[in-house]
Amino acid sequence: MNNIKIIIGMMLVTFLPRYLPFLAFSRLNIPRPLKKLLQYITPAALGALILPGAITAIPDYPLAATAGIVTAIACSWFRGEISLTVFLSVIATLVGLYFSGY
Amino acid sequence: MEENIEHSIKQKEVPSKFREGMVASLPIFIGYIPAAVTFGLLAKSTGLTLLETFLFSALVFAGASQFMALQLIQGGAGPAQIVVATLIMNFRHFLMSSHLSTIFPIKEKPWLLPFLSFGVTDESFAYFSTSHTPMGVDFILGLEYSAYAGWVGGTVVGYLFGNILPPIFQASMGIALYALFVALLIPEAKKSFSITIVAIIGGLTHSFLTWLKFFSPGWNIILAILIAASAGAWIVDEEENQ
To answer: Is the ipTM of this structure higher than 0.95?
Structure first.
């Protein structure tokens, strides 16, 4: 029963932060200071989502993870498709893990 | 008569946009599978029932918070404590949804807004916010809900069957979602130096705060995003003033 309580509570507190901005800003205009901040929210969030998580993505094998991320950077730099980038990155990580004696 | 023809063409277009969204979600879908399988597996070893585990992924749909909740349940934390920790952990989505509300067609079919917003995750946000073509509601829903299917399906598979992949494959797929973020960021970064700088500030600030361990992980990422985005706004101001 406790677990169901936790799930319902978590559902509410994860849903509301996603929903309320849509509800609010479909009716009223976004305040100017927030609008300015939001212009750069995409690179700010992507940067924070990538680091440090990418390095620690595979516990105890930071080198293999780094090999995967460097491959992803190289592939997308040369205009690789998103799916190809993800695929090559996983392969590079796999090779990295293999040579690290995983 | 003409109207009828137009109507039937429109009806045909709807599922095709939804399908385009599904195709676009493929990297997210693939990235979710290993994480979801691991969640199902851990939920089982934490003592949750299959129904509870399914409801966790189906109703909460928030990866990092779900893993945190398992840890807290195992540590004997109460529901209130877990819910508050989740709110902090997921509050970053408030910023992401605020931004998406400026690019989503939110005036089109407003009754769908709860469903559109439920599908906002780090990964779908990353995709939508770097897409420069206007997206219709059907495309958005197609992308969000096939990712959702991957998350919920992977959870159940993980609970029932455990690791279906050899461990080394499972481990190397852990990089997939980060590779996705990189693949979405690099084309943006190539376009403008200030975008590159803001992304680097975001990553370094988050790394520093994570190392510092002064705030909880939820606060760390919110602070890092706010600091980097403010730096971006400030840089633009400076450039405009010159």
So the answer is: no
